[in-house]
């Protein structure tokens, strides 16, 4: 009985800590300004980032060389995005407020992915710059 | 028998633990976060010991079994001190350090006593039962302590991004561990549940390594906005 109670409470706490952790990551990335180049590449120069862009931008992130320091965070936010999709699909019909909230969160996830892409492009450029003098 | 995946998990965790400690020394961050860094140092040492016992006696040996679980419990006690350290960071301006330490100590004694009483009722299968029961209770106390700390962070509108992420990473670790142990307590026959603790153990060093490296001490987070979004 006690073990069952602990499972339920711990899983509820895990969900809440996980959501809050992801939000703290999204908030930190949300402060970063996107470069013109990334806006151009992702097609976000004329329109604001939408929640639907997340998977597409994430595919671009995966095409760039891994920096080795953001993989876990990208996976976490990816899981959070899937969770939001699930909430939107299963509970969206209950209230438009839920759909609105989930869309806003998904938008933050897309922005997170765009910032991650920006950082990886900069990293790739640095790598290239390091290799160029060797060639010369 | 352990496969390549188990060794990869072990190596990833060990490298992240070592990185946190070495980085703390190099950046003069060891003392400001002493209890957290001390815990990481102890975990790294335990990982080395674990590898030694694994190579010397084998995965199925009693020696490895005892070393793994009892070092895990000792590390959980060290982690309680790490939580106490985070409480001190959050309540620093209120000068409540002494009360926090006494409170955490009393809670630890109460948990040990409760676990002992539970085990006393199940004398017949003491060792296996004791390990899972104690793990479940210790980690659950960790969940409660971290949840209260997270509540205090929100209430006090704590804005230090590093502190917020350290607390949340700890909360994820404690709640995932408590749930796993409690599930093992409920379903003793499920072997795959034994694989989860080593995977969960990689989370904390990886998350803390990220936080200490990427989140500067002076970075601020609008926790108030985060709280507002939570309650929306």
Could you explain how this protein is built, in words?
The complex is a heterodimer of chains A (136) and B (232). Helices cover 79% and strands 0% of the residues of chain A. Chain A has 136 residues and is an all-alpha fold. Chain A has one domain (2-135). The longest helix of chain A has 40 residues, at 96-135. Chain B is mainly alpha-helical and 232 residues long. Chain B is globular. The N and C termini of chain B lie far apart (49 Å). Chain B has one domain (4-230): Rhopdopsin 7-helix transmembrane proteins, CATH 1.20.1070. At the A-B interface, helix 1 of A face helix 5, helix 6, helix 7 and helix 8 of B.
Keywords:
heterodimer; A: mainly alpha; globular; B: mainly alpha; Rhopdopsin 7-helix transmembrane proteins; 0% strand
Strand content of chain B: under 5%
Secondary-structure class of chain A: mainly alpha
- Please give the alpha-carbon distance between the first and last residues of chain B: 49 Å
How many strands appear in the DSSP assignment of chain B?
Answer: 0
Quick one: overall form of chain A?
globular
- For the termini of chain A, the CA-CA separation is 71 Å
Q: What structural class do the secondary elements of chain B suggest? A: mainly alpha
**What fold name stands as the CATH topology of chain B?**
Rhopdopsin 7-helix transmembrane proteins
Radius of gyration of chain A, whole Å: 18 Å
Bin the strand percentage of chain A: under 5%
Helix count of chain A?
5
Output the CATH class name of chain B. Mainly Alpha
Which oligomerization state do the chains in this entry correspond to? heterodimer
User: Main beta sheet of chain B: strand number and arrangement?
Assistant: none
- What is the CATH architecture descriptor of chain B? Up-down Bundle
Low-confidence stretches of chain B: none
Compressed to H and E, one letter per element, the order of chain B equals HHHHHHHH
Q: For the CA atoms, what is the radius of gyration of chain B? A: 18 Å
Count of discrete domains of chain A? 1
Biggest interface goes to:
A-B, 23 and 37 residues
Could you estimate the helical fraction of the residues of chain B in percent? over 70%
């Amino acid at each position: 009985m006690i073990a069952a109670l602990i499972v339920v409470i711990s899983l509820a706490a895990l969900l809440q800590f996980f959501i809050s952790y992801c939000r703290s990551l999204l908030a930190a990335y949300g402060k970063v300004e996107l470069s013109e180049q990334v806006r151009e590449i992702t097609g976000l120069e004329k329109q604001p980032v939408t929640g639907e862009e997340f998977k597409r931008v994430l595919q671009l992130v995966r095409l760039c060389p891994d920096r080795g320091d953001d993989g876990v965070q990208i996976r976490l936010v990816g899981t959070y995005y899937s969770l939001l999709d699930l909430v939107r699909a299963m509970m969206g019909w209950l209230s438009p407020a839920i759909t609105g909230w989930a869309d806003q969160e998904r938008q933050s996830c897309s922005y997170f992915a765009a910032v991650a892409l920006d950082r990886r492009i900069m990293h790739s450029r640095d790598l290239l710059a390091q290799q160029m003098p060797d060639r010369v | 028998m352990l496969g390549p995946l188990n060794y990869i998990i072990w190596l990833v965790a060990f490298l992240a633990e070592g990185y946190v400690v070495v980085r703390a020394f190099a950046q003069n961050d060891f003392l400001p976060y002493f209890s957290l860094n001390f815990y990481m140092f102890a975990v790294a040492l335990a990982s080395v010991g674990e590898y030694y016992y694994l190579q010397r006696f084998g995965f199925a040996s009693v020696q490895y079994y005892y070393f793994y679980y009892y070092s895990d419990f000792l590390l959980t006690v060290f982690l309680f001190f790490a939580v106490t350290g985070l409480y001190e960071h959050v309540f620093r301006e209120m000068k409540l350090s002494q009360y926090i330490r006494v409170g955490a100590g009393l809670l630890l004694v109460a948990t040990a006593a409760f676990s002992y009483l539970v085990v006393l009722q199940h004398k017949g299968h003491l060792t296996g039962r004791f390990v899972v029961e104690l793990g479940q209770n210790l980690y659950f106390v960790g969940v409660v302590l971290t949840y209260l700390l997270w509540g205090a962070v929100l209430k006090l509108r704590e804005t230090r991004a590093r502190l917020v992420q350290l607390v949340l990473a700890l909360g994820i670790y404690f709640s995932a561990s408590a749930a796993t142990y409690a599930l093992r307590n409920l379903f003793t026959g499920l072997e795959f549940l034994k694989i989860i603790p080593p995977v969960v153990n990689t989370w904390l060093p990886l998350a803390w390594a990220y936080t200490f490296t990427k989140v500067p001490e002076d970075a601020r987070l609008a926790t108030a906005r985060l709280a507002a979004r939570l309650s929306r």
